Amino acid sequence: MAETMTCYRHPNRETGVSCSECGRGICPDCMRFAPVGIRCPDHAGNQKVVRGISRKSPAQMLRSGGQGAVTPILIGINVAVYLLTLAAGASINGVGGRVYEQGVLFGPLVANGEWWRLVTSTFMHYGPFHLLMNMYSLYLLGGALESALGRVRYVALYLVSGLAGSAGALLLSPNSLTLGASGAIFGVIGAIFILERQGLRVFPGSVVGLLVANLAFTFLFARYISVGGHLGGLAGGALAALALSRFGRGHAAYGKPGLIGLAGIAGVAVASVAISYLSVTS
Fold this sequence. Notes:
It is a single chain. The chain is mainly alpha-helical. It has 11 helices and 2 strands; from the N terminus they run ββααααααααααα. α6 packs across α7. It is elongated and about 65 Å long. 43% of the residues are buried.
């Protein structure tokens, strides 16, 4: 009796069709029709688009809710924290007052046991322009990534990227006062980059150009920007996306992360805290 073939991406679905390139089973949702036969998404050339992943623009996703519902919540939290900072006595640039003093990332205070600053600083900003720039980037990129990954994976990746950004900032400039969601946003860019390498475009065009432009901007204005925060967040987001794909054994968007994926995400978070600890206590 012949063994039943199942889809390599959806093991619970039986199929009688296999990829003409690699021979793996593919269900109707994964079939890509090419001139030389039916192929799987991994071998469909430039037609690597996963059916079922929303093709809406970030603006459409935010208006309609659905898979893009978490991104506007994150934006709302950042705006609310900025307004709270102003209400607590900060200047228009977000400096001063109790909220700022208790939330800004500063190595010596972290070394003194105030570890919450690794998280609170990622939701605070230096003035309306800084806030506007970061929230616009999150609006464009975050909604697209959330649509691909789903809410839970997206939130986990965002928070871990923020932690990694804080670790990078403390590693390179532990005595600087650092604020901003840039680390988490660079993590989103890193995750989108990994998804593109796995054959899934979640953002119009390629994110490589955007990544190069942002890195160039980071180093060009390194005097005013936390280089460590940006690089740390980028690395954290990329590693988190790789963890969700079980480090190449599956796919970050539609594969099951399993214990390896969950352990990988936790590992990035733990490593970020460990790097922060070593940076402020050395």
